[in-house]
Amino acid sequence: MEAHFNNKVFITGINGFTGKHLENYLKNRGFHVYGTTLGETSNKNHFKCDILSEEVLFDILNEIKPDYVIHLAAISFVAAKNQQNIYNVNVFGTLNLLEAIKSLEYKPKKILLASSAAVYGNIEGELNEDMCPKPVNHYGNSKLVMENMTKPYFETLNIIIVRPFNYTGIGQGTHFLIPKILSHYKQKKEEIDLGNIDVFREFNDVNFVIRSYTELLLSNISSEIINVCTGKELSIKNILDAMANIAGYKIKVNINPMFVRPNEIRVLKGSIKKMSNIIGDFTGEFKIENTLREMYYN
Prior knowledge:
Elements: E1 8-12, H1 17-28, E2 32-37, E3 46-48, H2 54-64, E4 68-71, H3 83-102, E5 110-114, E6 125-127, H4 138-150, E7 159-164, E8 167-168, H5 177-186, E9 191-194, E10 200-201, E11 204-205, H6 206-218, E12 224-228, E13 234-235, H7 236-247, E14 252-255, E15 267-270, H8 273-279, H9 288-297
Parallel strand pairs: 1-2, 1-4, 2-3, 4-5, 5-7, 6-15, 7-12, 8-11, 9-14, 10-15
Antiparallel strand pairs: 10-13
Helix pairs in contact: 1-6, 2-3, 3-4, 5-7, 7-9
């Protein structure tokens, strides 16, 4: 694996679920890694910063002068109560970052902006980047607005926008589905309330996602929107069966009408064609059983 000892990477939201995994991965590949965090920090490479402040962002970027920028900071939970804040952070936070970068005396080699497969909304089947997005919630819509508002910057900055599909791993919050299931098994609970368990989705490993981000960052592609996906779909029932094997018992599932989404589509997965044409296909290296086992025993 090649090393990048003189290259600096700047990650917004470095203390989030994805950010922590990405920081460790990039450090192991030889990068100097810096980032922003909302809370106080004792890490000298982490900077307390609200991305709604363009001025603070500029000062930090001007001090670090990163070669690469990865923008992860966002409100990522679909059911977040403050919907106006979803737009403030996800749209205007991104624009503040790009304006701050534009004001620098140099241009970073590449900027990777994390959007989401939620922009597609309820389109059935295999989703590709040429489809017209139809988001059905504020989170997905905020990401689509972000994408549209950042396209004018393609002319002056080397930007890639990624649309990750569902992924999980150690450290993800229990308000997300897979960690919720895991926490019930860890606590040896006999029952769990879920929605429809016969829907098929991608459930990818965070390690697959951060490797994909890194390879795309180092590629010579820019001004593109790219799915980060494996194209492999699993039902929630498949996840429960895998967990029953790992934990040694079956949990009783109660279908809670509150968790059943109306008109929920049965199969939703991404097309890997565009991404694999750029960075190759390493989807076979990641198995959900390994991810679940790692999360269960951690």
